[in-house]
Structures are given as structure tokens and as C-alpha cells.
TrEMBL record:
<comment type="pathway">
    <text>Carbohydrate degradation; pentose phosphate pathway; D-ribose 5-phosphate from D-ribulose 5-phosphate (non-oxidative stage): step 1/1.</text>
</comment>
<dbReference type="InterPro" id="IPR037171">
    <property type="entry name" value="NagB/RpiA_transferase-like"/>
</dbReference>
<dbReference type="InterPro" id="IPR004788">
    <property type="entry name" value="Ribose5P_isomerase_type_A"/>
</dbReference>
<feature type="binding site">
    <location>
        <begin position="81"/>
        <end position="84"/>
    </location>
    <ligand>
        <name>substrate</name>
    </ligand>
</feature>
<comment type="subunit">
    <text>Homodimer.</text>
</comment>
<comment type="similarity">
    <text>Belongs to the ribose 5-phosphate isomerase family.</text>
</comment>
<feature type="binding site">
    <location>
        <begin position="26"/>
        <end position="29"/>
    </location>
    <ligand>
        <name>substrate</name>
    </ligand>
</feature>
<feature type="binding site">
    <location>
        <position position="121"/>
    </location>
    <ligand>
        <name>substrate</name>
    </ligand>
</feature>
<protein>
    <recommendedName>
        <fullName>Ribose-5-phosphate isomerase A</fullName>
        <ecNumber>5.3.1.6</ecNumber>
    </recommendedName>
</protein>
<feature type="active site" description="Proton acceptor">
    <location>
        <position position="103"/>
    </location>
</feature>
<feature type="binding site">
    <location>
        <begin position="94"/>
        <end position="97"/>
    </location>
    <ligand>
        <name>substrate</name>
    </ligand>
</feature>
<dbReference type="InterPro" id="IPR020672">
    <property type="entry name" value="Ribose5P_isomerase_typA_subgr"/>
</dbReference>
<dbReference type="Pfam" id="PF06026">
    <property type="entry name" value="Rib_5-P_isom_A"/>
</dbReference>
<comment type="function">
    <text>Catalyzes the reversible conversion of ribose-5-phosphate to ribulose 5-phosphate.</text>
</comment>
<dbReference type="GO" id="GO:0004751">
    <property type="term" value="F:ribose-5-phosphate isomerase activity"/>
</dbReference>
<keyword id="KW-0413">Isomerase</keyword>
<dbReference type="InterPro" id="IPR050262">
    <property type="entry name" value="Ribose-5P_isomerase"/>
</dbReference>
Amino acid sequence: MMNQKKIAGEKACEWIKDGMIVGLGTGSTVYYTIEKLGDMVAKGLQITGVATSEETAKQAEKLGIPLKSLNDVTEIDVTIDGADEIDADFQGIKGGGGALLREKMVANASLKNIWVVSEEKLVRNLGEFPLPLEVIPFGWKQIQRELEKDDIETNLRKQSSGEVYVTNNGNYILDIVNQTFTDTAMWQEKLAQIPGVVEHGLFLDYVDMIICGKANGEIELIKK
């Protein structure tokens, strides 16, 4: 079977031009984008990357892609990132890789956002994939209890070792499970009002184009 992630990730490089500032996402699909960009930089492409995670920064540096911090750029020409789910209205869930806060900040600074995915990420309704909340460690249990009052079930994310997962920003992640997110605007408002929730993984009205790799080797471009 064709590697859907690889073909989608590499296809996105066609939208990268000389002189661009490029947001570099995090995850298993955009990994291939960054690998391909590394080849293009080695052959003379001149770009500056803005990484959304320490993992992505390490990969880019190893490949010789020049990087700047988000503080050092005024805007980003295009960001290429993955997604965990996307519905028909171009609303998505991100944060499976734990980088949702930086990913959203970079997306917000970008003139164009392209998401690279394999076809199973396209869904009718959001929610089969857990919705991550980045929360400060102080009082995280209070946030969990607050959500439980509304029958919202969460799991504290842990590493395979059993240790609590800590984001690049020093925070924890609570994953909302067993929930369908049909009224995404309502959820966005609700979660934003809970003290201690730094960011949530609902990405509403960010993406401009989806590059979807299919099992048969075809690539579908889905534009708004």
C-alpha cells in the first residue's frame, strides 16, 4: 500500500518558494515535508523555518534548514502541518503530538495554512480522536473536576513509561474522550473560559487547503 503520509507530506513542498518564511508543523506526516525541504535546501532553496516543537526544530537543524523563533518574524508565508481530524467544514482537531499551543500560535501568524493528512483523518464529525487541552500543572485536577461537572470525561496524558506527559512549554495535557464536537464554536468558547486551560486542540477556521494522500497513491487537494 502506498505511504499516504509520505505522498501528502512531499506534495506540500510544491507551495514553498525561494525567500519564504515557512511554518514547520509537528507529526508523522509533516515529517516527510521537512525531509523533502531538507533536500530542496541542500539543492539551493533559500527559506527560513519556524518550528512548532523542539522535535521539529531538531529535525530541521539536522537537515540544514535555517530557523528563526516566532518572536523574530513578523508573519509567516505558509505553514505546513498535520491534523488528527478534519470535518467537512474545514474544522479540525490537532495536538496528538502535544504541540497544539505552538502549532496554533504559528498558524495564527501565517498567511496560508496547508494541512497534510492521510485519508482516514477526514471525518464527518470531530471527536473520535480525543481533544487535547494544554493545562498548567498547578491545579490540573481542578480543571478535570470542573469538566466532570458537565459530564465531560478527560484523561491525563502519560508517556509509555507511565510518567506524566509534559509539553515543550512545561504544561500537562488533558485529553477529552467519548465526546462528539458538533457545535465547535460553543466548545471553543466554553473551554476558553476555564482558568488554567492554556489552549485547546480545536483549530477552527485556520486551514486554507488540505492535501490528502490516499491508499491508492492518488493525492486529493481540498480547497475552501
